[in-house]
Amino acid sequence: MSNNTNVEKNKNSKKFDIIHLLDNSQKICFIILIILGAISLSIRLYFFPNDLPFMGDALGYFWYANDISIIGYFPEGHISPTVTSPPPNNGWPGFLSIIFSFMDSRDFLDYVNIQRLTTIIISTVTIFPAYLLSKKFMSNSFAIISAAAFVFAPRLMENSLLGVTEPLFLLLGILSMNLFLSERKNFIILSFVVAGLFSIVRYEGLLILIPFTIMYFVRFQKKKSTIIRYGLAMALFLLIILPMVAIRIETTGSDGLTSHIVHGPIYYAEMMDKEGNNILFDFISKGSSNLIKYLVIVSIPIFAIFIPYGLFDLFKNRDFKKWTMIIFGVVFLIPAFYAYSRGFEDTRYLFILYPIMCLMVGYTIKRLEQKIRKPRISFYFPLAGIIFFSVLFASITINDFENDKEVYEISKDIHKLTKTINREYEGLMYLKWTGNNITNHFPALHSELYDGNVKKIKYIGTEDKNFHDIETYLEYGKLQGLTHLVLNENNIGIKIFHEVFVNENKYPFLEKIYDSSEVGFKTKVKIFEINYNTFENEN
């Protein structure tokens, strides 16, 4: 009787065992994933930089996509307002142009917001393929934790706000890995199709062919049809990328894929001819040190805790799936190393390793549960910890978009008050938007930014000259037609500007005509009109 009672108790306890429940109900798993996705989406929307124009890479993608949506084809010799050549690949702007073509708005900020919203949605829904990929290595419950580590990764959340390539790149990469690790041969062939899309979003995606090719022949080495099926897979891959390669060559003169890969070795070969072997040592040392540095950075705050054991478990009892992920990770360290060796210091070059890092999270939690035998603690506590520390870290590190919004508004005032300013002002990019009328009759081609009726501010650079005082700088500026100085807290790191910003009364030849703090802005920007008559009389 007592034995029966114990058996019944064990059965009932398992009903409330969250790990047992999840491992036996795919429906509940997806409900939890939807809830986690909704939470992560809410966090992203909380930080959303609404109605803020683009700067940097996102601006180039924006204009390229915009022009495609208007003219209906990839523009030849495209020049964006801030980028002197088209984006490296056509995949992301091509996809974005389809979305733009369905829009019916005259406000350019609506298009900007949609671009950001698209990357946010893509980044959020990637929780599902991230879960399915993790599920190939562990049970449902731990795969959920692994997927949560991905979707709540602070740097991925921040990156999703920028409207750039990484969210789509990661989605396609994870989808491709899912298909390749499938038990169904047709899905494996389909993985090469997705790998093609993966490659045209970012050219380093071509490297995925290395793990796919190696592990395909390892997996099917004894099958007679291996060569034929691999040939079919490669044919489909080429069918995806070759049309885009042809378009790139026709419009830009380079294919946008191998051209970027080949350019690097050629560049360093030329440098070695000029400077000797030291350039090779610098290349290796800089790449190695920065790679280690940024591997540590991208692992903070979540992954740093889990990687030590998770890495051990990844290499333990290696099978076909684990070897595929290992080779994938090693291969995609190459473009990161290359970027870091050239001085491009950014965490985004390592984002493609996040799916592997997430597996390490799942492995570690699995081991924890096996030791403590507390299913609820093993599931809820890590999940809550991932969300809490991710949100906390994001709130500290995510860019202060409110400051950027103020800089954008201040840029409108700068356009009203100035003609020629110093190039060191941090808001130059926003002046590209506020100084033209394109925003009033959007959509319009980027070339219309240079309409003759548009007021343009001229920017005077220092041409790498070193100025020891403001007087010497103004002597140079007068020859260049400089009329105003625009100074803010971030560019006062330049000593001569710092002195003016802090001690403005010492310079009677500089008349302050604007102070942002006096008109309600927290961001401190001052505009000085240069009186050259007074300047010459005093000097």
Describe the structure.
The protein is mostly helical. It folds into two domains: 29-397, no CATH class; 401-538, no CATH class. It is 64% helix and 4% strand. It contains 25 helices and five strands. It has helices spanning 2-15, 18-23, 26-46, 57-71, 91-101, 108-125, 127-135, 140-151, 154-159, 166-180, 185-201, 209-219, 226-252, 258-275, 278-298, 303-315, 320-331, 333-341, 354-372, 375-397, 401-417, 428-434, 470-480, 495-502, 532-538, and strands at 420-422, 458-460, 484-488, 510-515, 525-530. It starts with a helix and ends with a helix. 39% of the residues are buried. Mean pLDDT is 85; it is low at 5-13.
Biggest sheet: strands, sense, closure? 3 strands, antiparallel
In the predicted model, the low-confidence regions spanning at least 5 consecutive residues are 5-13
Q: Provide the domain count.
A: 2
Approximate strand percentage:
under 5%
Principal-axis shape? globular
Number of strands: 5
Task: Give the CA-CA distance, first to last residue.
Answer: 107 Å
Q: Could you report the average pLDDT, rounded to the nearest whole number?
A: 85
Number of helices: 25
Radius of gyration: 27 Å
